[in-house]
Every structure is written in structure tokens, then in C-alpha cells.
């Protein structure tokens, strides 16, 4: 059998094996990922003077919105970013626009958000 023929058959068999493994092993992970996305985290703004929303999880990024004290927010997930008064966590908010806010000024309502 020619070397080219052996290589082509080997590649085809390898691709088929990967496809089968991916189909079975990825299904539970995909389902778990979708299930996690269905959970909605919420919080309430605690900053006396309100809270700026940012384009990235850092204080120097573009300000793209503002929230008043007491407003309820929907939180997608949490990441580490610039530390604000000792708290390095930032939340990705999903209320109409995707924006970042320092978790220092948001109290969780219910469970803490998952990591992004």
C-alpha cells in the first residue's frame, strides 16, 4: 500500500474517532454549561453615591452607564479585576447592556455569581 494511502486512511480514522469521542464526552459538558447559564444571579447596588458601569473590569476603562443606590441588577458572572477598596471582584451585568461593575458595591441577593 502506498504511503500516501496509509496516511489518508490513518487521518480519516483519527478524525472519525475524535468526532465520536467529542459527541459523547462533550454532550454532558454542553448540557451543564447551558444549565448554568439558565441561573440568574441578582444583586443590589449599595454605593451611597451610585455606581459607574465600565466597558472592562477595571476603573480606567470607558464608563458606559450608571446605577443608583438600591437598584436591583442581573449578574452573569464574576472575574478578578482592579481592586476597589480591597475587593478585586467585578460582576458582568446583563441589564440591557453588558457592562462591568465592582462587586465592592453590589450585595448579592441569593447565591454568589459563578466565575466567568
Account of the 3D structure:
The protein is of the alpha+beta class. It has one helix at about 5-35; strands at about 40-45, 50-55, 65, 70-85, 85-95, 100, 105-110. The protein has a five-stranded antiparallel β-sheet, with no helix packed on it. The radius of gyration is 22 Å and the shape is globular.
List the helices and strands and how they pair.
Layout: H1 3-37, E1 41-45, E2 51-54, E3 63-67, E4 72-84, E5 87-93, E6 99-102, E7 106-109
Radius of gyration: 22 Å
Number of helices: 1
The poorly predicted ranges are: 1-38
Large-scale geometry: globular
Provide the spatial order of strands within the biggest beta sheet.
Answer: 6-5-4-1-7
Could you tell me the number of beta strands? 7
What structural category characterises the helix and strand content? alpha+beta
Describe the largest sheet: 5 strands, antiparallel
Helix % is 25-40%
Main attributes?
disordered N terminus, 116 residues, 1 helix, 5-stranded antiparallel beta sheet, alpha+beta, globular
Amino acid at each position: 500500500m502506498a504511503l500516501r494511502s496509509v496516511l489518508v486512511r490513518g487521518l480519516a480514522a483519527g478524525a472519525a474517532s475524535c468526532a465520536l469521542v467529542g459527541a459523547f464526552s462533550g454532550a454532558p459538558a454542553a448540557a451543564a454549561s447551558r444549565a448554568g447559564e439558565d441561573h440568574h444571579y441578582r444583586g443590589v447596588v449599595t454605593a451611597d453615591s451610585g455606581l459607574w458601569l465600565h466597558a472592562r473590569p477595571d476603573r480606567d476603562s470607558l464608563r458606559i452607564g450608571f446605577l443608583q443606590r438600591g437598584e436591583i441588577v442581573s449578574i452573569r458572572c464574576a472575574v478578578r479585576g482592579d481592586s476597589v477598596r480591597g475587593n478585586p471582584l467585578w460582576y458582568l451585568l446583563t441589564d440591557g447592556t453588558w457592562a462591568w461593575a465592582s462587586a465592592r458595591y453590589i450585595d448579592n441577593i441569593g447565591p454568589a455569581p459563578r466565575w466567568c
